[in-house]
């Protein structure tokens, strides 16, 4: 009888943990505003976010930026839509994943006083 109770408790615990793990943190474009560097030795930022737009160092242009489901950045630099999932965002660090979850990018924000 005790075995059945333990088994039920473990099943309930696993369901709660799975539900918690599936909840993604939600972000806003205001939290992401600023300049972000992937290489701290570079004199220019990899990208910057301002007023719902993203500026890319790769082509030195602004592009429309959307935030879907509170954690997916979506923009089109002219050769097709790019989607990046925000894994973590703090005052100084941003962690992004590609759509397949196979590439993780760590980016640092410019110094904030």
Q: Explain this structure to me?
A:
This protein has helices at residues 2-22, 29-32, and strands spanning 34-37, 47-50, 53-56, 61-68, 72-75, 82-89, 93-97, 104-109. The chain starts with a helix and ends with a strand. It contains two helices and eight strands, in the order ααββββββββ. The chain has a single domain (26-109), classed as Lipocalin (Beta Barrel). Helix content is 22%, strand content 38%. The protein has an eight-stranded antiparallel beta barrel.
- What spatial form do the alpha-carbon principal axes imply? globular
The CA-CA distance between the termini, in Å, is 61 Å
Which CATH top level class fits?
Mainly Beta
Radius of gyration: 19 Å
CATH topology: Lipocalin
User: Segments where pLDDT lies below 50 for 5+ residues?
Assistant: 9-23
Strand order of the largest sheet: 1-2-3-4-5-6-7-8
Range of helix content: 10-25%
Elements, N to C (H/E): HHEEEEEEEE
Count of DSSP strands:
8
Share of residues in strands: 35-45%
Keyword list:
about 110 residues; alpha+beta; Lipocalin; eight-stranded antiparallel barrel; about 20% helix
Secondary structure layout:
Elements: H1 2-22, H2 29-32, E1 34-37, E2 47-50, E3 53-56, E4 61-68, E5 72-75, E6 82-89, E7 93-97, E8 104-109
Antiparallel strand pairs: 1-2, 1-8, 2-3, 3-4, 4-5, 5-6, 6-7, 7-8
Structure summary:
The chain is α+β, with helices and mostly antiparallel strands and 113 residues long. The protein has 2 helices and 8 strands. It has an 8-stranded antiparallel beta barrel with strand order 1-2-3-4-5-6-7-8.
């Amino acid at each position: 009888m005790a075995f059945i109770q333990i088994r039920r408790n473990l099943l309930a615990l696993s369901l709660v943990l799975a539900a918690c793990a599936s909840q993604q943190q939600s972000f806003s474009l205001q939290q992401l505003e600023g300049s972000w560097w992937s290489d701290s030795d570079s004199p220019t930022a990899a990208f910057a976010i301002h007023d719902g737009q993203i500026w890319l160092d790769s082509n030195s242009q602004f592009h429309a930026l959307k935030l879907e489901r509170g954690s997916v950045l979506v923009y089109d630099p002219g050769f097709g839509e790019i989607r990046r999932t925000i894994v973590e965002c703090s005052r100084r660090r941003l962690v992004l994943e590609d759509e397949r979850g196979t590439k993780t990018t760590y980016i640092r924000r410019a110094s904030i006083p």
